[in-house]
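User: These chains co-purify. Model them together.
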Amino acid sequence: MFEIVIGLEVHVQLNTKTKIFCSCPTSFAHEQNTNTCPTCLALPGALPVLNIEAVRKAMSFGYAVNATVNQRSIFNRKSYFYPDSPKAYQISQFDVPIVEHGELFLDLEDDTTKRVGITRAHLEADAGKSIHEGAISKVDLNRADTPLLEIVSDPDMRSADEAVLYLKKLHSIVRYLDISDANMQEGSFRCDVNVSIRPKGQQEFGTRVEIKNINSFKFVKAAIQYEVQRQIEAYEDGYYEQEVYQETRLWDVAKGVTKSMRGKEDSADYRYFPDPDLRPVLVTDEMMEEAKKIPELPDAKVARYVDKLGIKHYDAVVICAQKEMAYYFEAMLESNIAPKTAVTWLTSELLGRLNKAGHDITESPVDAKTLGTLVSKIEDNTISGKGAKDVLDYMMESDSRDIDAIIDELGLAQVSDDSAILAIIDDVIARNQDKVAEYKSGKDKLFGFFVGQTMKASKGSANPAKVNELLKERLG
Amino acid sequence: MHIDLTVLEKLEKLSHLRIAESKREEVIRQLSEIVSYVENLSELDTTHLDASFSTLEGGTPMREDIPVSDTTAAPSILSHAPMSMDGFFVVPAIIE
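Assistant: Joint model of the two components:
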């Protein structure tokens, strides 16, 4: 019946050492208003000087999403009054942003991808923070003028799930580029959602409603679902014009609803104009070349894992979604183990245990080199897969990383020595003459019985492949 | 641009200023004069110029990303603020 149209605006706090227009540190300050100076406090006469690193980071993002990076862009003033913005305007890019016309690709469930356009990405200054306490509000300007990159998508998403996929992909790219900590809870990756509906087949877009500052992927999905339902109901009940108008709404976490932020009459009027304190941003050819040097990004990594390492597309997407996971995986491969085996040990064995313990890959008690070494012990037949799981369990609980010592301690060394295994096999055969006779008379299924008995007699230490091979030999 | 009471009310809202009833006529007259004076600029043909045009040569200077801490500024500025407390600027409650 209805088509949902979603566009996203994401504010990424760039991880520069200093603010965008002054040399104040952006690092965490223990006391309020200590990372401030006349420029970010907007004292008369103090002039902004642009941080070149913020420009570099914005440009590398541009190249990461196949965008146009403008060699000439400008800063505008966006006027509004709010106590956490001492200038009474925000310095932002309006007419000509540094980055425009980009794209990124969503990894859909059926292994296909969907292209989402990136309208623009522009540099701007963050506001400070206010704490509301009854009749007063307390203002801390430590965050004021921290560099932000606002990334605006085309209205290309058609469901809440696609919106979340877009955010996750964007988050991943920003983390790979190391241009932001991109921590949603801490506010270094903030998301505004534009949502509208239209009857299927209608060309014109419906009226778009903006939902501001949603701080988790889960809430993005919930907020969109709620808002879409609200708009559809208004449409079906014949109140679309009255109920749905261009406005800003807030997501109420406690109630699970979106709420109007300001009345219809008070729509914002920002009166953008070029900032006379800042000349155009001119980027040199050298800066352009330098900014093109970006690390391998998730899409390229997935393609390489599938083509060169023979990994399943789904697994590759899971591993590459998080930079730390991909780097962990690549470090495991340095132990010269089969990539497919490494995938299993990373995504099932390690992640399974980490999930249970409530850890992220970055907090894994077992590092990639150790896990890689452990897997190599299966591949060279020192231990069985079962034994390796025991070693991993052991390491999750202890500080010891001497794998050989742990194997000894747990008595997991696998017996691959022919004579040792043959001795066990001969004993099993001697004790089960009746079964041997049945097997020889054609009851092939009994082979499994002999394997089981041999493994049991070896207390699981015999190399199963060897057991199979030698049993076949002995039973003829 | 024609300035009337409606426009004046909008301007009051945007500027957080309140014009006394007795001065409204006068302010409207003055604003109209200012705006018509500035409208002279419209005679300039800017159709061939792009939005990033500047009459100044060269780009904005840029600086390297090296932090400088000056802990003396804030206390002095806070001491001049109309109201401050525990290192915070204090303002009347902001109502959304």
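The CA atoms of residues 80 and 182 of chain A lie 26 Å apart.
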